[in-house]
């Protein structure tokens, strides 16, 4: 399977993806073979249905939100480049030493981008603010039904109070970063095929 | 003024100490039936009723009756007063660690005894140390061990503890022997085996010393847990090594053959694993015991201590590693003890544990100092002593760097170079080494006193010198410190979110996650341990939630009342029109008063941020977090209980397509139903042109505004997620609407829990549910659990099914609910995406 995948993936494409995402060659080919195996339509893109076919995602409380995070706005398909771009958020943070070009845009796996990814999982209406309702929806997804709405509401209220510094009852991305700054960002990483990289 | 006060205090302490000492010295002499050279001893002797009495004495002097107990109590008091004195001045403890200061005060006390007696009557004696001082420290460390951190780093800890300690012992013994052969130490009667024995007792990093120093430095937690975990576990290793070499020394060089060496290695594993097993057995016993101590709540905290101590003694009796036994006993039982026992008992255990551990730690350090003031043990051999100090220091560095270099290749987050320096530098030797040195048999080892003396010097060198320089070094090397910040609720949720996301990402990218053992353990625990070791009532989360929620509300109410009293009236409590969430009201008031300060800050008076010297990791952690306010803790707790566990914790050992992966089927069920419902919604709206039942949802004003925003939000600059509407519309029943019924008094579900059907799928507000509390539930078939449909193409078929399972009027009644969860049909053939 791996050999087929690498045949289909052109070398220059791999190079581009490598440059953009920082994945290693072997990781890219491995993930590409995964990509093609997910791609039931065999048209080089993944649709929502392709993702939803992954059985584990159905029992992941955030499964569908995460699936949505793979799709650029208004599109129903994601190609391998986009797929890798999303995955790249979860690469381990690298030390700055590799960052030869400081003027370049921030790598996808930077702290801020990781947090931005999480922030967007909350921020459904994309107004750059997490409102109480958005927070509640996320909480509702992640919390068992044993907690009543009132309890959840009070949790949401407290959460917003904790994070909200300007008193608009919403959490902006800046407030979000500030509030989450102790999040051990190292746990927000996936090691892809550690023995390949 | 302050200095004067301190000086007075110091004088008082000295007086007391001297009083204690003079009594002590007299007593010791009497007991050892030495000739009395003391000053006044006439009246005391006849006082305890030994002589014939001529008349009824009104009071008698009965010193001998209580001398031992009195001395013990007095020494404990003196040691603790030393600590009091030291901690009175933070200027000093900021630079010099408390342990070093305690040793120094031990020097002074020892000097006074020496001055009075011309002989050292008190020194740290191995029996007292190993049986009365050490157990509670170890139990405390185990009981307050941050389990997750410990087990995440267990590999590194074990490698350092086992291989590192063996390396230290062997390298030190062999190098000293080599130097001896080379003639660096003059004339000493020490053979290779004795050197190895000495090396093994010097090898172990001491948990007491490490905790005492690292507690005050606040290095990052990974570094801390590696050094601390190592120091805890390697005690087991050292004791084994010590026993093995001790036996070898007794056997004599000639009779050691391959068989004996193999036996030594076997005994190592037996002792270590046997000790751990004993500990685990006792941990289980404790957990079981606390299940049924409901009726004797007063003494239930005592069980933890007694059983912990018994685990220590039992392991000692079986000549297994007592330290490992107690550690694992504490590690295992903590979770169940906390769940099973009453909250106040849990607090009692926690604080009593601290008292014992911190107290005996203090005593150990003071006595380490006192023990030094003894002419007998001071046998100076420059070569031996200096070389030992040098080798101990250097080999620690070499060992740590080498092992960590290897470990770093397998770590997700490699331990940094600077951290390694601190790890090496944190190799403090302490009382365990001294205790073992004193245990040496003088007949077999001629130079015992030299060894004790050297051990003491190494202890002083590491605890005092390295202890003092540790903090500047940490600063200078810019070692990552533990983050001093509160963990916010948002962070907790986000963390959880990341966990779920990571699992999803791993699933999407089709790879097995990395923490295989942890997930296996979780699975095992969920299935086997928790049902046996935890009270049924503690297992039932609902009760717990209402309990926590109740407490939360109580606190809010108390705040509210306090606030009312502050304003001089409780009128508003009775005022029906003021039916508002307590907290909301309070907050708005706070916000009015101090708009810039988030309300939760108001309770934070800053005083609690003061450093609390403590023995345990947990305190360490708490100091780090600077103690959140209790309410927040409750909310955190509530969340902890109820956030879905990310599946990573359950998975593995199963086929990836197997749905029984997640043991907690209720959770799976819930999540699955939500997901499917959700997909059904978006699917319907997308493909069938059926709009989700938006119109039936009673949106509050706020939500409507949100909706508008959603539509506008599309123009926003941020790269978006798609299909937001699917979510907006599909979670109406989850959105929060005000549930405060006017005139109905303050809505507080904690006070009327009966209104809440405790069913899992309960999603209807209580007032709607009264009629048919069960109507909203669709019991999923077993098949549904086993075979989930794999794509929305199958979903829409399911969509029709539920209608038949429910009566129409139920549907009407719940029509602000979502379409009910589907009852999936027979499974489609699994799609071959794997």
From TrEMBL, chain A:
<dbReference type="GO" id="GO:0005634">
    <property type="term" value="C:nucleus"/>
</dbReference>
<keyword id="KW-0472">Membrane</keyword>
<dbReference type="InterPro" id="IPR018247">
    <property type="entry name" value="EF_Hand_1_Ca_BS"/>
</dbReference>
<dbReference type="InterPro" id="IPR051875">
    <property type="entry name" value="Calcineurin_B_homologous"/>
</dbReference>
<keyword id="KW-0813">Transport</keyword>
<dbReference type="GO" id="GO:0005886">
    <property type="term" value="C:plasma membrane"/>
</dbReference>
<keyword id="KW-0519">Myristate</keyword>
<keyword id="KW-1003">Cell membrane</keyword>
<feature type="domain" description="EF-hand">
    <location>
        <begin position="151"/>
        <end position="186"/>
    </location>
</feature>
<dbReference type="GO" id="GO:0015031">
    <property type="term" value="P:protein transport"/>
</dbReference>
<dbReference type="GO" id="GO:0005737">
    <property type="term" value="C:cytoplasm"/>
</dbReference>
<keyword id="KW-0479">Metal-binding</keyword>
<dbReference type="GO" id="GO:0005509">
    <property type="term" value="F:calcium ion binding"/>
</dbReference>
<dbReference type="Pfam" id="PF13499">
    <property type="entry name" value="EF-hand_7"/>
</dbReference>
<protein>
    <submittedName>
        <fullName>Calcineurin-like EF-hand protein 1</fullName>
    </submittedName>
</protein>
<comment type="similarity">
    <text>Belongs to the calcineurin regulatory subunit family. CHP subfamily.</text>
</comment>
<dbReference type="InterPro" id="IPR002048">
    <property type="entry name" value="EF_hand_dom"/>
</dbReference>
<keyword id="KW-0449">Lipoprotein</keyword>
<keyword id="KW-0677">Repeat</keyword>
<keyword id="KW-0653">Protein transport</keyword>
<feature type="domain" description="EF-hand">
    <location>
        <begin position="26"/>
        <end position="61"/>
    </location>
</feature>
<keyword id="KW-0106">Calcium</keyword>
From TrEMBL, chain B:
<dbReference type="GO" id="GO:0031526">
    <property type="term" value="C:brush border membrane"/>
</dbReference>
<feature type="transmembrane region" description="Helical">
    <location>
        <begin position="221"/>
        <end position="245"/>
    </location>
</feature>
<dbReference type="GO" id="GO:0015385">
    <property type="term" value="F:sodium:proton antiporter activity"/>
</dbReference>
<dbReference type="InterPro" id="IPR018410">
    <property type="entry name" value="Na/H_exchanger_3/5"/>
</dbReference>
<feature type="transmembrane region" description="Helical">
    <location>
        <begin position="449"/>
        <end position="468"/>
    </location>
</feature>
<dbReference type="InterPro" id="IPR006153">
    <property type="entry name" value="Cation/H_exchanger_TM"/>
</dbReference>
<dbReference type="GO" id="GO:0031901">
    <property type="term" value="C:early endosome membrane"/>
</dbReference>
<keyword id="KW-0050">Antiport</keyword>
<keyword id="KW-1133">Transmembrane helix</keyword>
<keyword id="KW-0967">Endosome</keyword>
<feature type="transmembrane region" description="Helical">
    <location>
        <begin position="417"/>
        <end position="437"/>
    </location>
</feature>
<feature type="domain" description="Cation/H+ exchanger transmembrane">
    <location>
        <begin position="94"/>
        <end position="476"/>
    </location>
</feature>
<feature type="transmembrane region" description="Helical">
    <location>
        <begin position="265"/>
        <end position="289"/>
    </location>
</feature>
<feature type="transmembrane region" description="Helical">
    <location>
        <begin position="66"/>
        <end position="86"/>
    </location>
</feature>
<feature type="transmembrane region" description="Helical">
    <location>
        <begin position="151"/>
        <end position="172"/>
    </location>
</feature>
<feature type="transmembrane region" description="Helical">
    <location>
        <begin position="192"/>
        <end position="214"/>
    </location>
</feature>
<keyword id="KW-1003">Cell membrane</keyword>
<feature type="transmembrane region" description="Helical">
    <location>
        <begin position="98"/>
        <end position="116"/>
    </location>
</feature>
<feature type="compositionally biased region" description="Polar residues">
    <location>
        <begin position="804"/>
        <end position="817"/>
    </location>
</feature>
<feature type="compositionally biased region" description="Pro residues">
    <location>
        <begin position="818"/>
        <end position="834"/>
    </location>
</feature>
<feature type="region of interest" description="Disordered">
    <location>
        <begin position="789"/>
        <end position="834"/>
    </location>
</feature>
<dbReference type="GO" id="GO:0055038">
    <property type="term" value="C:recycling endosome membrane"/>
</dbReference>
């Amino acid at each position: 399977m791996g050999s087929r995948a690498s045949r289909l993936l052109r070398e220059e494409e791999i190079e581009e993806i490598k440059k953009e995402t920082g994945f290693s060659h072997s990781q890219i080919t491995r993930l590409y073979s995964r990509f093609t195996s997910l791609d039931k339509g065999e048209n080089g893109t993944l649709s929502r249905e392709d993702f939803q076919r992954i059985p584990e995602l159905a029992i992941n409380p955030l499964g569908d939100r995460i699936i949505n995070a793979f799709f650029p706005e208004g599109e129903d398909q994601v190609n391998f480049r986009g797929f890798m771009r999303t995955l790249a958020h979860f690469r381990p943070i690298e030390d700055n030493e590799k960052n030869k070009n400081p003027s370049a845009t921030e790598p996808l796996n930077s702290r801020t981008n990781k947090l931005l990814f999480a922030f967007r999982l909350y921020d459904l209406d994309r107004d750059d603010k997490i409102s109480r309702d958005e927070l509640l929806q996320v909480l509702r997804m992640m919390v068992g039904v044993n907690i009543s709405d009132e309890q959840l509401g009070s949790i949401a209220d407290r959460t917003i109070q904790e994070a909200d510094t300007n008193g608009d009852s919403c959490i902006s991305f800046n407030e979000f970063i500030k509030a989450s700054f102790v999040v051990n960002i190292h746990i927000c990483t996936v090691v892809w095929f550690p023995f390949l990289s | 003024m302050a200095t004067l006060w301190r000086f007075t205090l110091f004088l008082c302490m000295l007086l007391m100490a001297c009083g204690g000492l003079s009594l002590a010295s007299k007593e010791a002499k009497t007991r050892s039936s030495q000739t009395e050279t003391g000053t006044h001893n006439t009246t005391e002797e006849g006082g305890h009723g030994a002589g014939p009495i001529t008349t009824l004495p009104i009071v008698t002097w009965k010193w001998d009756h209580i001398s031992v107990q009195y001395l013990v109590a007095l020494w404990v008091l003196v040691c603790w007063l030393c600590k009091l004195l030291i901690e009175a001045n933070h200027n000093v403890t900021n630079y010099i660690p408390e342990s070093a200061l305690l040793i120094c005060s031990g020097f002074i006390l020892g000097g006074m005894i020496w001055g009075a007696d011309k002989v050292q009557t008190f020194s740290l004696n191995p029996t007292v140390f190993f049986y009365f001082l050490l157990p509670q420290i170890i139990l405390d460390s185990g009981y307050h061990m941050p389990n997750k951190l410990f087990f995440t780093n267990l590999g590194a800890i074990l490698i350092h503890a086992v291989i590192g300690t063996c390396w230290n012992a062997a390298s030190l013994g062999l190098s000293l022997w080599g130097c001896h052969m080379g003639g660096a130490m003059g004339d000493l009667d020490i053979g290779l085996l004795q050197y190895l024995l000495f090396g093994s007792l010097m090898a172990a990093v001491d948990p007491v010393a490490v905790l005492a120093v690292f507690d005050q430095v606040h290095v990052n937690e990974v570094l801390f847990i590696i050094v601390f975990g190592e120091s805890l576990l390697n005690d087991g290793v050292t004791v084994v090594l010590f026993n093995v070499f001790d036996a070898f020394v007794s056997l004599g060089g000639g009779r050691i053959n391959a068989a004996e060496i193999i036996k030594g290695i076997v005994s190592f594993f037996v002792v270590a694993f046997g000790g751990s097993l004993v500990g685990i057995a006792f941990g289980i016993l404790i957990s079981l015991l606390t299940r049924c101590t409901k009726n004797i709540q007063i003494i239930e905290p005592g069980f933890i201590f007694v059983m912990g101590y018994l685990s220590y003694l039992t392991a000692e009796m079986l000549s297994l590693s007592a330290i490992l036994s107690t550690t694992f006993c504490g590690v295992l039982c903590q979770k169940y003890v906390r769940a099973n026992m009453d909250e106040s008992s849990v607090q009692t255990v926690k604080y009593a544990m601290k008292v014992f551990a911190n107290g005996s730690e203090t005593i150990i350090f003071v006595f380490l100092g006192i023990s030094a003031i003894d002419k007998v043990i001071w046998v100076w051999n420059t070569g031996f002593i200096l070389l030992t100090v040098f080798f101990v220091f250097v080999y620690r560095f070499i060992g740590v760097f080498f092992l960590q270099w290897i470990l770093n290749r397998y770590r997700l987050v490699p331990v940094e170079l600077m951290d390694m320096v601190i790890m090496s530098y944190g190799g403090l030797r302490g009382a365990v080494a001294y205790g073992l040195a004193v245990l040496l048999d003088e007949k077999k080892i001629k130079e015992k006193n030299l060894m004790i003396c050297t051990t003491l010097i190494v202890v002083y060198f590491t605890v005092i010198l390295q202890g003092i320089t540790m903090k500047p070094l940490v600063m200078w090397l810019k070692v990552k410190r533990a983050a001093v910040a509160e963990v916010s609720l948002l962070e907790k949720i986000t963390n959880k979110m990341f966990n779920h996301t990571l699992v999803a990402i791993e699933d999407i990218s089709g790879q097995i996650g990395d923490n295989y053992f942890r997930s296996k353990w979780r699975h095992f625990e969920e299935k086997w341990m928790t049902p046996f070791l935890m009270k049924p009532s503690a297992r039932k989360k609902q009760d717990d939630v209402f309990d926590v929620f109740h407490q939360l509300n109580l606190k809010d109410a108390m705040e509210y009342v306090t606030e009312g009293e502050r304003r001089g009236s409780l009128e508003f409590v009775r005022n029906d029109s003021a039916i508002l969430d307590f907290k909301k009201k309070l907050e708005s008031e706070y916000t009015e008063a101090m708009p810039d300060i988030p309300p939760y800050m108001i309770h934070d008076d800053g005083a609690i941020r003061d450093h609390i010297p403590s023995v345990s990791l947990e305190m360490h952690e708490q100091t780090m977090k600077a103690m959140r306010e209790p309410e927040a803790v409750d909310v955190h707790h509530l969340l902890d209980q109820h956030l879905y566990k990310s599946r990573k914790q359950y998975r593995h050992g199963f086929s990836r397509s197997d749905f029984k992966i997640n043991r907690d089927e209720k959770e799976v069920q819930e999540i699955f139903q939500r997901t499917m419902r959700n997909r059904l919604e978006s699917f319907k709206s997308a493909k069938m042109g059926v709009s989700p039942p938006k119109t039936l949802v009673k949106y509050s004003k706020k939500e409507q505004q949100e909706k508008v925003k959603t539509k506008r939000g599309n123009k926003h600059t941020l790269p978006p997620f798609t299909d937001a509407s699917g979510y907006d519309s599909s979670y109406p029943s989850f959105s929060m609407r005000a549930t405060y019924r006017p005139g109905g008094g303050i809505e507080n579900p904690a006070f009327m829990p009966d209104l809440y059907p405790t069913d899992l799928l309960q999603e209807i507000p209580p007032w709607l549910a009264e009629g048919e509390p069960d109507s909203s539930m669709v019991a999923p078939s077993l098949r549904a659990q086993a075979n989930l449909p794999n794509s929305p193409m199958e979903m829409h078929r399911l969509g029709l099914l539920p209608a038949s399972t429910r009566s129409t009027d139920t549907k009407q009644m719940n029509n602000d609910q979502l379409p009910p969860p589907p009852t999936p049909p027979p499974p489609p053939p699994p799609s071959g995406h794997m």
